[in-house]
């Protein structure tokens, strides 16, 4: 989870240039054995704040993410509605930042001996951008779904962001690589930005 949270922070940094990244992290809010065995809705969402710099290595940010998440987990029963009220945020300011939700659940479902493929249809309304990562513990690859507020993101834009995020995940396999060197652009995107957008040469009439 800390690796995926760090990857999301890098993703936001590379897209926006922000060096102070805040992510919304869903938490179980079940801190006792009795709470873990009790059916009911107890989950919570709290912000994690990370300093992301281009010169930092992937490993350094993962370590920092671990430290910050340990601090947040200690407060996971601090209801997010109370947090917003205590810091003076209005009801229309619900999201602190993009949401990253790692769901490492066992999806090995069978009905009468027949395997079943489970599909998550929705995690509820999205204030801005939500990245949900499924570790299905069944030998299949990690799955990343991106959901966005339709007022801010089109389906094509979300598909584009998903491909960039997947390229980023492939790049963080090298923990000693600096964040600023990670590539999130496809070759055709890089060609468009570096060459097509800069192809501004025009003939100048003699005078």
Keywords summarizing the entry:
207 residues, two-stranded antiparallel sheet, 7 strands, 34% helix, 19% strand
Counted by DSSP, the helix tally is 6
* Backbone shape: globular
The number of distinct β-strands equals: 7
State the strand order across the main sheet: 3-6-7
Order of helices and strands: HEHEHHEEEEEHH
Mean pLDDT figure? 85
Main beta-sheet strand count, sense and barrel state? 3 strands, mixed
Q: First CA to last CA: what distance?
A: 64 Å
Short description:
This protein is an alpha+beta fold and 207 residues long.
Walk me through this protein's architecture.
- This protein is an alpha+beta fold and 207 residues long.
- The chain is 34% helix and 19% strand.
- It contains six helices and seven strands, in the order H-E-H-E-H-H-E-E-E-E-E-H-H.
- The chain has helices at residues 2-16, 33-37, 58-73, 80-86, 155-171, 187-196; strands spanning 20-27, 44-51, 99-103, 109-111, 114-116, 129-134, 143-148.
- The strands form three sheets. Strands 3-6-7 form a three-stranded mixed sheet. A two-stranded antiparallel sheet has the order 1-2. The protein has a two-stranded antiparallel ribbon with strand order 4-5.
- Helix 1 packs across helix 5.
- The longest helix is centred in the last third of the chain and has 17 residues, at 155-171.
- It starts with a helix and ends in an 11-residue tail after the last helix.
């Amino acid at each position: 989870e800390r690796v995926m949270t760090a990857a999301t922070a890098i993703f936001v940094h590379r897209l926006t240039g922000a060096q102070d990244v805040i992510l919304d992290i869903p938490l179980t809010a079940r801190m006792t054995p009795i709470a873990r065995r009790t059916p009911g809705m107890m989950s919570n969402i709290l912000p994690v704040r990370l300093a992301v710099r281009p010169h930092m290595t992937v490993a350094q940010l993962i370590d920092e993410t671990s430290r910050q998440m340990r601090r947040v987990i200690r407060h996971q029963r601090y209801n997010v509605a109370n947090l917003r009220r205590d810091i003076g945020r209005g009801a229309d300011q619900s999201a602190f930042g993009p949401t990253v939700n790692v769901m490492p659940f066992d999806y090995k479902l069978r009905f009468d001996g027949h395997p079943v493929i489970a599909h998550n249809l929705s995690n509820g309304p999205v204030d801005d951008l939500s990245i949900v990562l499924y570790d299905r513990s069944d030998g299949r690859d990690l799955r990343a779904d991106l959901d966005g507020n339709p007022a801010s993101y089109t389906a094509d834009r979300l598909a584009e962001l998903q491909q960039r995020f997947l390229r980023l995940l492939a790049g963080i396999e090298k923990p000693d690589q600096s964040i600023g060197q990670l590539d999130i652009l496809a070759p055709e995107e890089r060609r468009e930005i570096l060459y097509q957008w800069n192809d501004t040469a025009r003939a100048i009439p003699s005078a």
